[in-house]
Structure formats: structure tokens, C-alpha cells
Amino acid sequence: KAGVTQTPRYLIKTRGQQVTLSCSPISGHRSVSWYQQTPGQGLQFLFEYFSETQRNKGNFPGRFSGRQFSNSRSEMNVSTLELGDSALYLCASSLGLGPLGNTIYFGEGSWLTVV
Amino acid sequence: AQSVTQLGSHVSVSEGALVLLRCNYSSSVPPYLFWYVQYPNQGLQLLLKYTSAATLVKGINGFEAEFKKSETSFHLTKPSAHMSDAAEYFCAVSSTKAAGNKLTFGGGTRVLVKP
Fold first, then answer.
1. Residues linked to residue A89 through DSSP beta bridges, in sequence order
2. Measured between CA atoms, how close is A18 to chain B, in angstroms?
3. Percent over 90 (pLDDT), chain A
4. Among A60, A69, A96, B44, which is least packed by CB within 10 angstroms?
5. For residue B12, what pLDDT is reported?
């Protein structure tokens, strides 16, 4: 059974550009969450989707957006990139909501470098 | 609001020695608690989780953690360290009130295992 797949794994962008990252959850999983990981701020929650609806949003500016498609695949977009957006972006999927009887699986992440 | 504090950003242990990683949480409602491990250039892998059943939780790879409400702690232990335990470990909390999968992570503890 394939795990959470994130593409691309590595990318370099220039300040001011925009970027789209993709996440394919484990087959059958309907919940997808996104996290940003940086050395300074650690792991921070970006947003969470379930059945194409955003259920939760972290404390990030509006330049960060996401969506989920009917097949549960998700994308996140960052517009007008800043140097501080350089980070590892992690996607996580789970079958349902809440930790009871439900395990959250993480992908290997997309490394974004903004120059 | 919830938060997690991990005491010690780096821990060095000898192979065969006890591994003890400290985690204290703050939550206005009974929490769900988790430990994740991250190996270099990989995503997060769940070690174990506390969901208000037994206070002593056993996880994978010989790790276990004990939930102590009076101390608001969820420390992770392993009796005998192995070289393969070298990684970064994250404690996380989620709310029993919200139905989503949002996790709030601690700053992480990097474990170095000396031969």
C-alpha cells in the first residue's frame, strides 16, 4: 500500500514567484493536513481538509492557500514567495478525524528553497 | 489553546543506555498526546499515542511513554538505546474537543547515540 506521496520533493524558487505543492494521500484516506517545518519555528500547522472542505486553518498569511479535490488529493499554494517561506512542507493523511481509532501518516515532504 | 514544551533540544546517550525525552503539555481540556520520530530527510513516523485509555502507552521500536496528569507530562523512554534510534523526536498534542486532526508540536529533541 503506497504511503503519502508529495511532489515535487525539492524545488528552488525566486522571491515573488508562486509555488504549488501536491499531496496524494494514502488510498481511502479523506483527511489531508499540511505543516510547515523550519529550524526557527519548528512544525507549524497550515490547514486541514476533509472531503474537500477546509476544517481548520493555522495562523499563516493569506498567501498560503490550499484545496482538496474529490479524489482526496490536495494542493497547497504559496504566492508572492518570501525568503522566510523556505521550509520543508509536510503533508499528512488519515482515514477519518480525531485520534481515536485513527492514525495520521506523514509524507516525506517537499523541500522549498526561496532565493 | 494548547502547547507542548520539550526539555532539551539535543540529547546524547550511549548505546545501551536509557533514553529519556521529556515532554510537558498545556491544555485546557483533556488532551490526546503523541510522539513522532523523524529520521534525516524523511517525514514523521508515529511512535505512540495516548487517547485516555491506559496511562502507560507502549509504542514501536521499544519506546513507551507515561501520561501523568498531575505533572502535565508525557515523557518518552526506551530502556536501551540503539544506534538506529538517532533521530529527531517530536511530542505533539491535539484537542479532545475538536474533531479534526490538527496537531500542535513541541520544538523537537535531537537524539545522538554514541557507540
1. A36, A110
2. 24
3. 88
4. A69
5. 97
B101–A33 C-beta distance less than 8 A: yes
Contact B30, B47 (CB under 8 A): no
Tell me which of A43, A60, A88, A110 to substitute to probe the interface with B (most B C-beta atoms closer than 10 Å): A43
Interface list for chain A against chain B, based on CB atoms closer than 8 Å? 4, 31, 33, 35, 42-45, 48, 50, 55-56, 58, 90, 92, 94, 97-100, 102-109
Span B66-80, pLDDT tens digits: 999 999 999 999 999
Residues above pLDDT 70, as percent of chain B: 97
CB contact under 8 A, A43 and B108: yes
How deeply is A41 buried, as exposed, middle or buried, from its count of CB atoms within 10 A (0-12, 13-18, 19+)?
Answer: exposed
First CA to last CA distance, chain B: 41
SS3 B107: coil
**Per-residue H/E/C for B75-86:** EEEECCCCHHHC
What is the spatial distance between Cα A69 and Cα A49, in angstroms, rounded to a whole number?
10
Cα separation, A14 vs A1, whole angstroms: 36
